[in-house]
Structure to design on (276 residues):
């Protein structure tokens, strides 16, 4: 039988019983007012995102879906549970990493109730229980990782905590949907050391890149010198190109000690002398 129908049937039986017992004693008007009050306290409206858990004389009886519902007054009690995704802040936790570095870390826990009956019966306060378990799991997970792993693998930290909390809270009718790490705080002296380390790493990369650039430039210059040595007039063209690149600025003054023709004549004379 539908939960709403059961509530209506119970309410009708209660009204009939009251009418049979008290009509001879109470006046019709007073009886009518009493019955209207009885109907009023029997109505329960459950929102679309909620589930009502009904206890009859202290025992779990049924659950109420969204909409208009009726319960048996006095005999039945209703506990309404929010079935939406809930958010809980994980307060800042002091933890020691695997390499003995103290850190302070906080996060956010997202979860939802899948079984309203279990969330009421199996745990006293499911929100508080999930929050405390998440804090304990956070400290345990951080203690099994090094500082570099904690800083680089935030998502992995959240996934491990989620698995631990979800495994335990499943018996409470709760599903952990996600855990996100927020701030990771470290001692100031350690922050300064990490900053100097990062700066040294950047300088190291810059020096390596510059040395690599110098090597490539030297190789290219060597190849260019070989090509110009094989081509007559190549040095003159290169010299003229360099002079042209200086621009027409008045402050640039170019002084050529010897004309290129004389230098070429000296080279030819030297080669002829060597042949003799």
């Amino acid at each position: 039988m539908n939960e709403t129908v059961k509530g209506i049937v119970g309410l009708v039986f209660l009204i009939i019983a009251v009418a049979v017992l008290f009509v001879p004693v109470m006046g019709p008007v007073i009886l009518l007012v009493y019955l209207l009050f009885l109907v009023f306290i029997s109505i329960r409206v459950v929102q679309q995102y909620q589930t009502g858990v009904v206890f009859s004389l202290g025992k779990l009886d049924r659950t109420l879906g969204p909409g208009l519902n009726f319960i048996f007054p006095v005999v039945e009690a209703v506990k309404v549970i929010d079935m939406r995704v809930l958010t809980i802040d994980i307060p800042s936790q002091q933890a020691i990493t695997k390499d003995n570095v103290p850190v302070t870390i906080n996060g956010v826990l997202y979860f939802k109730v899948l079984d309203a009956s279990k969330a009421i019966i199996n745990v006293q306060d499911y929100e508080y229980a999930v929050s405390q378990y998440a804090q304990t799991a956070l400290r345990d997970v951080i203690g099994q990782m090094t500082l570099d792993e904690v800083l680089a693998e935030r998502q992995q930290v959240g996934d491990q905590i989620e698995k631990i909390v979800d495994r335990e809270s499943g018996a409470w009718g709760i599903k952990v949907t996600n855990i996100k790490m927020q701030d990771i705080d470290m001692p100031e002296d350690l922050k300064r050391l990490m900053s100097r380390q990062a700066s040294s790493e950047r300088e190291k990369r810059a020096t390596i890149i510059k040395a690599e650039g110098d090597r490539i430039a030297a190789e290219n210059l060597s190849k260019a010198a070989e090509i110009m040595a094989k081509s007559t007039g190549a040095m003159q063209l290169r010299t003229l190109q360099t002079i042209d690149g200086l621009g027409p600025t008045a402050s640039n003054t170019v002084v050529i000690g010897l004309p290129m023709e004389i230098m070429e004549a000296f080279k030819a004379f030297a080669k002829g002398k060597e042949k003799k």
Q: What stands out?
A: The beta strands are 43-46, 50-56, 59-64, 67-70, 76-82, 86-96, 102-113, 174-185.
